[in-house]
Design a protein that fits this description.
Blueprint: E1 7-11, H1 15-27, E2 32-36, H2 40-48, E3 54-56, H3 59-63, E4 68-71, H4 75-85, E5 94-97, H5 103-109, E6 117-123, E7 144-149, H6 155-167, E8 171-174, H7 177-206, H8 211-215, H9 218-224, H10 231-240, H11 242-264, H12 268-285
Parallel strand pairs: 1-2, 1-4, 2-3, 4-5, 5-6, 7-8
Antiparallel strand pairs: 6-7
Helix pairs in contact: 4-5, 7-11
Length: about 290
């Protein structure tokens, strides 16, 4: 039986929101999808692509009768909307989000009026390029979608959120907001910071020799890839997950210092042990 969540309002029709609208329209066609965006051209394109059943630039009109509202905008914009959206939502409405950090968002959700059900969310998917033109219905397929329920989240609301995530083709994973933020600091936000360091370090070291960039092949391209991502998105992440990221950077700095010491001391046996340990763990995680 096809999933039917009634009226689903998606606030923000970029890569994440647009892909969610496309997935619902394709995989749960009994739902009525309302797309809400700042630009009339974005709303028009979403309708032309048949990702949404109706669209508007007016937040209040878009969410008024919604059964589920998903905030799919940058993190700090999500926080702004959480602070004001409660009175616009009908009793029993489920408010969700797709923000990359969860503690700050869930704290804001705890202050939403009690007539609204709330649950934090973070789909572990995306692309370097953003915008509705990059949206696709299978973006969420087989990807982990973190759900972070609050103490006030009812069992019925959690069950509804789980079924909603599964309707997108994603795999729900229940996590505490603080645990989530610490995890993503290590496996998502730290790699971004190291990628930035790699690009700037290489530029400082040999940037005067333009031939260097012609030699750059798969290794450099792969390890520097995420430095080409969205600056507004990353600045929001850094602002709202500051402490776990600083802790992750501190551990990375210690690891780098260890490699420097081994190389300075020409300790190839110690270096081999460090490299072997990392290689073994990498192969265990990604066989």
């Amino acid at each position: 039986m096809e999933a039917d969540f009634g009226r689903v309002a998606i606030v923000g029709l970029g890569l994440m929101g647009g892909s969610m609208a496309a997935a619902i329209s394709e995989k749960a066609p009994r739902c009525h999808v309302i797309g809400i965006a700042r630009r009339a051209s974005t709303v028009a394109r979403a309708r032309m692509l048949r990702f949404v059943d109706e669209g508007t630039q007016d937040l209040a009109n878009g969410v008024r009768d919604a059964d589920i509202v998903v905030l799919a905008t940058p993190v700090r914009d999500i926080l702004d909307k959480i602070a004001n959206i409660g009175p616009l939502l009908k009793p029993g409405c489920l408010l969700m989000d797709v923000g990359s950090t969860k503690k700050t968002i869930c704290e804001a959700m705890s202050r939403v009026p009690e007539h609204v059900q709330v649950i934090g969310g973070h789909p572990m998917c995306g692309k370097e390029s953003s915008g509705l033109t990059m949206a696709e219905p299978d973006l969420y397929q087989d990807r982990v979608y973190v759900l972070a329920p609050l103490p006030r989240t009812s069992e019925e609301a959690l069950d509804k959120a789980i079924r909603f995530v599964r309707s997108l083709g994603a795999r729900p994973l229940i996590l505490d907001p603080e645990r989530h933020d610490r995890m993503v600091a290590a496996i998502s936000h730290l790699p971004y910071m190291l990628s930035v360091t790699l690009v700037s370090g290489a530029e400082d070291f040999v940037g005067y020799d333009e031939l260097t960039w012609q030699l750059a092949a798969g290794g450099f391209r792969d390890t520097s890839r995420v430095a080409g991502g969205s600056l507004p998105m990353m600045l929001d992440i850094l602002a709202t997950n500051r402490e776990p990221i600083l802790e992750a950077l501190d551990h990375a700095q210690n690891s780098l210092s260890r490699l420097i010491q081994l190389l300075q001391g020409n300790d190839m046996q110690g270096m081999e042990e460090e490299l072997s340990k990392a290689r073994t763990r990498r192969r265990e995680v990604f066989p």
